[in-house]
Amino acid sequence: MKNFEIYYTSDTHGTVMPVDYSTGEKKACGLLNIAEDLKRSGVVKGSEGNCCGNVSESSGNGIVPEYESCTDTHGNEVRKDSDVLIMDGGDSLQGTPMIAYYLEHRDEFSVHPVATGFNAMRLDFYTLGNHDFNFGYDVIRDYVRAMDGTLVIANVEDLKGEIEHKKYVICTLKNGLRVGITGVVTDYVNIWEQPEHLTELRVTDPVKAAGEAYSEMKEKGCDITVCIYHGGYEEDLITHEKLTDSRENIACEMARKLEFDILLTGHQHMAVEGIELNGTWSVQPPANAEQYIHLKGTYTDGKLECSSELLKTGDEAAEDKVQQMLPLENCVAMWLDEPVGEFDEEISPENKLYIALHGSKVAALFNQVQLESVEADFSCTSIGNTEIGFKKQVSIRDIYAAYPFSNTSQVKEVTAEVLKEALERCAQYLDLDDNGNPYISDVFMKPKVEHYNYDFYAGIDYAFDLRRPVGDRVVRMRMLDGTELVPGKKYRLVTSNYRATGTGGYEMIGEAKTVYSTADNVQDLLVDYVRKHHNLSIPDNYKFEVIC
Description:
- This protein has 15 helices and 30 strands.
- It has 548 residues and is α/β, with parallel strands linked by helices.
- The protein has 2 domains: 2-332, Metallo-dependent phosphatases (Purple Acid Phosphatase, chain A, domain 2, 4-Layer Sandwich), CATH 3.60.21.10; 338-547, Alpha-Beta Complex (5'-nucleotidase,  domain 2).
- It is globular and about 75 Å long.
């Protein structure tokens, strides 16, 4: 009988410090807090270097790992001097103002904040998430170089050859157990990402790549196999009902087609403490390093038994690393607190159902920024999963809290027919209960909460009739001056680069011709807009009605 443990994070989204950047207050979250948790529990006995390494390789801080690997000709064999593995599932380089500021000023700082956090955790193995591609090749390369752990990713080809990674590793634990580990990322990166960020990288089919890695690992005598998959579940985990035909998330398919013992998932930000899928044990932690997975396994006579739990991140951080991060953190705080404008009245945090019925002041602002940045007839935008508002005085902190995504803008050439089809998708967001009361449809709530896939439009007067069947609910669609849209006429719609891919059920937008793209970050456009319009009022740029 051989026992082992896995500690697993995913979708930490740049959450390194124990800070809520929307308020500046301390919060129990972050890689440095998890590092302290692991240290206090005895998992981590130091804060420099990981325990797995390759022969003749040193860690990112110049320290040769305590245990060198036993290598084969491909260098995939490593050893660890304990029976505990620490892993991460990607989406680490986007999501907080701190990482956004660092990436804009990285030449000014000697430490990589995300790598510092993971190195303090003594991370062994990790893969990439879709958001890790948002900033191009050099940002990924520099991140990997700063990391002590090993990047395992089987479905990404590095055409330039500067990103050190392995398709899989076989890690022999202290008790002799041989654990094969691979990683893959959803190939929807190819749909979402800006083409210039993928000129030196090729993302291939995750199922095929994971299957090939699995076969090689088994051929080399693994006892158990682990796949770190930056993707989630396409089925209801209780009823096993298929929830979508999209291949963005295919964990259930992978569990059926492949024979991994453990499937560590991410991307959806779901809290899945542990579930068996066709003989594969699978987990997923929620986002932002507020919780993490602790998995225990027992291997006996060729059979594996697993259990796992979600642990809440503790209140205390690795203090030596906090001090190391302070120069960056102080710069971020000063930048965030800079006042840039003032509304004529405060915007209270907007309830999701209310704004779906009556329109959003925040979305009107976002749309106005997009409309003024390009030449377009209409704009559409979405809002994240949290309720968003603005205080009367607006700082950069407030803007980043309201719009946390590193999106750019694209202009699509659309017809009235395409607009109607897109609006029909939006109209699916609401349904009526047996008493005729509106509620947010399960289509946008399961298996993952997706408020961000409901779009608000500007430059148009439109109405939904929820009493009508899905697909035939748009009953008014005209210009703001009352002019009817002309069938077949080409109009210009500005939207985010995310929505421009057609993701979220908006294939009709994805298929429309792109007539203009800008590299300007929408967050920066928002800051510039607020500075330009120092005394702000809510733009009157849409008319909207929901008929129940």
